[in-house]
Design goal:
It is built from 13 helices and ten strands. By secondary structure, it is α/β, with parallel strands linked by helices. 35% of the residues lie in helices and 15% in strands. Strands 1, 2, 3, 4, 5, 6, 7, 8, 9 and 10 form a ten-stranded mixed sheet that branches. β4 (156-160), α8 and β5 form a beta-alpha-beta unit.
Length: 338
Amino acid sequence: MTTHVSYLALYESGELARRVSALESMLAACNVCPLDCGNDRLRGELARCYSGALPVVSSYTPHFGEEPALSGTKGAGNIFFGNCNLRCVYCQNYQISQTHKQQVKNQVTHERLAEMMLELQARGCHNISFVSPTHFAPQMARALLLAAGRGLRLPVVYNTNAYDSVEVLRLLDRVVDVYLPDLKYSDSAEGYLYSKVPGYAEHARAALAEMFRQTGDELVFAEDGTLRRGLVVRLLVLPNDVAGLRESLEWLRDSLSPRVAVSLMAQYYPTNRAGTDPRYTLLSRRVSEGEWWRAVSLLERFGMEEGWMQEYDGASHYYRPDFTDPETPFKDIRDFQS
């Protein structure tokens, strides 16, 4: 499908190349995420996320388990980056995000990353969806610049944990077409305990506010029903309301818009350290049916009607690079509110 995407205008004007240079300069004393570790990734140092100058790609594949408007009929073109700037004790992809000694073997050049995008386009994917791109945002942009010059025409999805630098996001304005952030916690104390980073809630809310500034609350769809531009906020329901869902929904409604699309997710299960470490006992079980329906009722209470929800029976579905189940676990929110 050859439809106009915003980064092509930036490419043609030379602005995309200028943005890439600005992003890459941030690697010299790394501040591409709020950790601001200051390490010189351009000269071989590793940042706190154990990432260097070149991107690490664990896998890339057409993916059918995303929201229907992203998966479509031919799959989202997911590119799974290795490493992560968070250390979530319940990370469902911890084999990718928290095993840097193994992931360094998956380091690729910018040219190879560009080739992956073009391969996914050739396979008919509806978009290029970068999964956990925060710590590789400059490398992502460099590869996108190369791919645009070689015929890439798909929209770019930025699937992030939301612990993002506002400065980086401003440089990604009109480079990214669809923002797909998590909003993990409403309280930074939980962010520190369960994801090992300071100020999660404050930084994530600032990041979402910048994404909203760029996209507004309107979702733009192609003729085939796939999403071409917009903001979709993912909310993972955690046991014992660790996420503080009510407070996050209230913030989204009051600080952004009640029309912001949300994706309510039931897929939590106690993996990684959450299932075994007594310090994280609040996360040591699945979400109960009662907890799930309380979360659903909050959407109605706050008037959030745009987006998607996983069915509670879909709690056993979880995201992994090899997940290609053609039956998406997501349904439109309004199907649950009618």
